[in-house]
Automatic annotation (TrEMBL), chains A, B:
Chemical reaction(s) catalysed: isopentenyl diphosphate + (2E,6E)-farnesyl diphosphate = (2E,6E,10E)-geranylgeranyl diphosphate + diphosphate
Record-level GO cellular component terms: cytoplasm
Protein name, UniProt field: Geranylgeranyl diphosphate synthase
Function: Catalyzes the condensation of farnesyl diphosphate (FPP) and isopentenyl diphosphate (IPP) to yield geranylgeranyl diphosphate (GGPP) needed for biosynthesis of carotenoids and diterpenes.
EC number(s) given by UniProt: 2.5.1.29
Associated pathway: Isoprenoid biosynthesis; geranylgeranyl diphosphate biosynthesis; geranylgeranyl diphosphate from farnesyl diphosphate and isopentenyl diphosphate: step 1/1
NCBIfam families hit by this protein: FPPsyn
CDD domains: Trans_IPPS_HT (cd00685)
Keywords: Carotenoid biosynthesis, Chlorophyll biosynthesis, Isoprene biosynthesis, Magnesium, Metal-binding, Photosynthesis, Transferase
């Protein structure tokens, strides 16, 4: 699977480089390239593996993979701003507002969101106009006030209220904040292939929650040098996390159960979906 | 024309209310409604008048009109942030970051941008999938790093460098910062009707520049009570404007010439385009 993930990373980076080629060397343009570099490309991998299951070639699906990575990058740049999570380090590098300034970070995030929708209109995606419109509509739902932005607002509201969330509330928050984009990524391949995305959606719901539980575990057990971002932040802030609510052992058990659920949701695809099963296991074994 | 503009304002507000109806009462949701209220709705009017010229009913084109107003509102909310233009008053009301806070303003802008693309996917727009994709692709180009965001970056770079721009540079900056969205608005109606948008594009280029010249004139001559925002800001900041470069009389003459150009570009439509001609004249006679 490491090979396939690496191939996916290379293909997505190449696609993003092509998309950014017309840009110049103004700070905001340089910072866009910077913000789009690196990362695990987990969302891109979900898109491309799901697409392959439905007979869509990587040369096509990589454009949808690049789109979701562009949305993800925009959300990180804005989330790291001093008025939001105020993070100085991301993927082992200074965050955009530290390397440049807050105004550049606002504009870079804005432009990366726009770029994501732009990428879904590109002819290279090779899908019918109706499928593109479906992908664009579902990306808007997953990333906007019905999805990711709602999750971020719920996160800020919880911090402001200083009332720790219970398990149901934190599960809902995370389903919005990180789950919605992961779900879009897994479903995109089926949508591109004109197929029913329900099974991939179930898989992604479980993977998304496992991903967030592992994030909370890494915040406690992780190594800042490996994760490339600050650790212990949530515990220090007295924030409710899956670890504070379930305990470390309980959180690990729950994550493993979710990975089993995710793999089971793919039964209909047989062994062809082993790449997606591997990625579900990777999500809870990763150290970054 | 005042009647038609009022009808357009009502229709757009109704459409936005419908689109926002599923939202709750969290601060970010309340602030989205707040940011979408009021304004001249000039861009919406251009969309709906252009659409009517090509036989598209208001009940359809209003969705594209609402989309461009949502992009415009997002740009204002982010542009008003302390790290950007740092404005406290907009449309006669406290700006979003003053009324709520910076984090809410970042999220509101992000969600409004997403909403714009969402609105262009709605079935109520009634256009073919191919036409929707064309509108989405051109909106991404007009609002992203190839259009509005580039103009904002050029504006910030000019302020940081403290070197006043010359006429060619300020014209290019404004063509990006405000011109691109105005051009999209005017062209959208022809695209919706499957027609050639070139004439409407020429019209909009001239109107967009006249609009910005009038903004600079209002910054010198305007009444803060009427414009609903601070005046004299650019002159105080020693920024190059069309007024500083052309003089007040020269700027007024240039704006009038541009309006004549804009009206001439519509000759092929005959008197059916009188609404658009009126709006061009309105742009340089407005006090807000």
């Amino acid at each position: 699977m490491q090979d396939r993930m690496e191939q996916c990373r290379d293909a997505v980076q190449q696609c993003l480089n092509d998309a950014l080629a017309p840009l110049g060397e103004r700070p905001v343009e340089v910072a866009m390239r910077y913000a789009l570099g690196g990362g695990k490309r987990l969302r891109a991998f979900l898109v491309m593996e799901g697409a392959q299951l439905h007979g869509i070639a990587p040369a096509q699906s990589v454009w949808a993979a690049a789109a979701i990575e562009s949305i993800h990058a925009y959300s990180l740049v804005h989330d790291d701003l001093p008025c939001m999570d105020d993070d100085d380090v991301r993927r082992g590098q200074p965050t955009v507002h530290k390397r440049w300034d807050d105004a550049t970070a606002v504009l870079v995030g804005d432009a990366l969101q726009t770029l994501a929708f732009d990428l879904l209109t590109r002819p290279e995606l090779g899908a019918s106009s109706q499928i593109r419109v479906d992908l664009i509509a579902s990306l808007a739902k997953s990333s906007g006030i019905g999805g990711m932005v709602l999750g971020q607002a719920q996160d800020i509201a919880a911090e402001t209220a200083m009332i720790p969330l219970d398990l149901a509330a934190i599960t809902e928050l995370q389903a919005n904040k990180t789950g919605a984009l992961i779900e879009w990524s897994a479903r995109a391949g089926a949508i591109l292939g004109g197929a029913d995305p329900t099974a991939l959606g179930h898989y992604a719901k479980a993977v998304g929650l496992a991903f967030q539980i592992q994030d909370d575990i890494l915040d406690v057990e992780g190594d800042a040098a490996k994760t490339g971002k600050a650790v212990g932040k949530d515990a220090d802030a007295g924030k409710a996390t899956f670890v504070s609510l379930l305990g470390l052992t309980g959180a690990k058990t729950r994550a493993r159960d979710l990975v089993d659920e995710a793999c089971a949701a793919l039964s209909h695809y047989g062994t062809r979906a082993d790449g997606l099963r591997d990625v579900a296991r990777f999500v809870i074994s990763r150290e970054t």
